[in-house]
Amino acid sequence: MITLQRSAVPRRAVRIVALTFVLGAVASGCSNGTLPVGANRGLRDLHDIGQLRSVFNRNAGKPRLVLLLSPTCPTCVVGASWVQQHVLADNRGAGLAVIVVWMPQFPGDARSRWDAAVLADRRTTHFWDQNSRSGRWFKDHVKLSYDTGPVLWDAYLLYGPKARWSDVPSPLISTGRTVIGSTAQLEHDLKPLLTSAPARTPPVSRPVESAPGSAG
Description:
- This protein is an alpha/beta fold and 216 residues long.
- It folds into two domains: 12-41; 43-193, Glutaredoxin (3-Layer(aba) Sandwich).
- The protein has five helices and six strands, in the order αβαβαββαββα.
- It has a six-stranded mixed beta sheet with strand order 1-4-3-2-5-6.
- Strand 5 (155-165) and strand 6 (169-177) form a beta hairpin.
């Protein structure tokens, strides 16, 4: 008679193997540019243009850079990476606001394809515009010096600290499309607007006073 015995492998070891498999799957997904579920919590859904107006006016007194991008279009991703490095990372102390609207304009675009590592800076606000309403709105309401289709995307719009958004955001300093193809103009127009944060003054060292009665 054959007696069946329970596996000698400890339950703890099984749990460790399972956890290792899950972590490996997550790491693999991230390395391929696919974010794990829940990683896009910083991405707000855009339901109406009033949401953009609110964020724009809340940042009055700062230069504001509006970006209209696709999450997977190669030129959009490269343009966003350029902004991350040359606008945000190179000017860490500068007071500015970057408002990014991601929209499906390229084959394969979806909310889940947004990469939170692109434009990862506390000065950025990210929206997902499923219906591309913002691209249509800016196309219809902002005077552009370049041709575009019915939707404005892979484009930037730059506004100064005194700009306000009532009917339309104004005054507009400059705009360009594509972002990566307009970096020279953007850099030229943005540079004089950036105000670095004041440097921290190191604490003043004070001489230690001798206690009364102590030897000199």
